[in-house]
């Protein structure tokens, strides 16, 4: 039994170091809602990376939420608006809906138009606020700490719904503008979507519609090949993503509750499936984190084989500080 106990302590100590290593290298995202309405953020992780949880949640006016992502994470955030649950329990949003029928998007992306904040983390992080699929909310991304020549804030902080061309405007049944489509989403033409004969940087040029977006939000990506003026990068940064930012984003938000009402939308509106993924500036790198997770799982298997049964739960301080409670006196 003494030998088994020594093995247990050694293995848990090593696994604790691995777990601490994973968390110490995490990137922190702080999601803030400064809108005058409730926002339901959605989260989608790219294929091949550890999924970020939760994939959807509620932020009342003035609320914020902190998420931790491994340094190799890649994916996107967006805000959903005018959401409600019908009598059958189906969850639906007027803009940015991911079609899951639930609060969490569970691997589904936003139905355009929606303002996207996209990240590829690694030794150097790349990030962009994208209007390639359209716009629904003002968004500001601010790096916290970090370094780099191009490590600065970006976003689209103006209300494009007020200045959206009529051909791109999405309205509710009261004729109020709630979102603004991109030309690609509105018309589906190859020249607007940078597809087919227009599928290269040399052949796909900004349209008069994308120029409306670019003029209003010069740091945001307005069409698929607009990455040269809209992609930013940092090393070692955390990030704050603010919906409806004010001029001073450092002010502490007030905690106010707002009860959402079922919106009146034209339910017959159909959004065309546009190519809104853009072009990644750097590939996601997840092998290091997967190796660490695999090592932790391997430790668990060894301990189980040695007759040491224990449970690893999220936030279990016992496993983090290396204590071993698997032996009875």
TrEMBL record:
The chain crosses the membrane at residues 288-312. One of its GO terms (biological process) is defense response. Pfam families: Thaumatin. Residues 1-17 form the signal peptide. PROSITE patterns: THAUMATIN_1, THAUMATIN_2. InterPro entries: Osmotin/thaumatin-like_sf, Thaumatin, Thaumatin_CS. Keywords: Membrane, Signal, Transmembrane, Transmembrane helix. It comes from the Eukaryota. Residues 248-279 are annotated as: Disordered. This is Putative thaumatin. It comes from Helianthus annuus (Common sunflower).
């Amino acid at each position: 039994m003494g030998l088994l106990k020594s093995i247990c302590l050694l293995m848990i100590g090593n696994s604790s170091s691995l777990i601490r290593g994973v968390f110490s290298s995490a990137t922190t995202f702080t999601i803030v809602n400064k809108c005058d309405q409730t926002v339901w953020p959605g989260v989608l992780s790219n294929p091949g990376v550890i999924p970020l949880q939760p994939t959807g949640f509620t932020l009342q006016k003035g609320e914020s939420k902190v998420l931790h992502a491994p340094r190799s994470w890649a994916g996107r955030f967006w805000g959903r608006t005018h959401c409600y649950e019908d009598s059958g329990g189906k969850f639906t949003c007027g803009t940015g809906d991911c079609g899951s029928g639930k609060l969490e998007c569970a691997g589904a992306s936003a139905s355009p138009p929606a303002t996207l904040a996209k990240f590829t983390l690694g030794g150097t992080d790349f990030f962009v606020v994208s209007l390639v699929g359209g716009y629904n909310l003002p968004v500001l991304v601010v790096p916290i700490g970090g370094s780099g020549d191009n490590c600065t804030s970006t976003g689209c902080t103006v209300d494009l719904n007020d200045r959206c061309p009529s051909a791109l405007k999405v309205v509710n049944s009261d004729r109020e503008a709630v979102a603004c489509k991109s030309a690609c989403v509105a018309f589906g033409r190859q020249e607007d979507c940078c597809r087919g004969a227009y599928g290269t940087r040399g052949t796909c040029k900004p349209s008069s519609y994308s120029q409306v977006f670019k003029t209003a939000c010069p740091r945001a990506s307005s069409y698929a090949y607009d990455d040269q003026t809209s992609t930013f990068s940092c090393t070692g940064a955390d990030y704050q993503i603010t919906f409806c930012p004010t001029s001073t984003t450092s002010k502490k938000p007030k905690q106010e509750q707002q009860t959402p009402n079922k919106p009146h939308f034209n339910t017959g509106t159909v959004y065309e499936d546009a190519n809104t993924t853009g072009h990644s500036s750097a590939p996601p790198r997840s092998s290091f984190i997967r190796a660490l997770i695999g090592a932790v799982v391997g430790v668990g298997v060894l301990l189980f084989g040695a007759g040491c049964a224990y449970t690893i739960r999220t936030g279990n301080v016992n496993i983090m500080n290396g204590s071993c409670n698997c032996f009875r006196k």
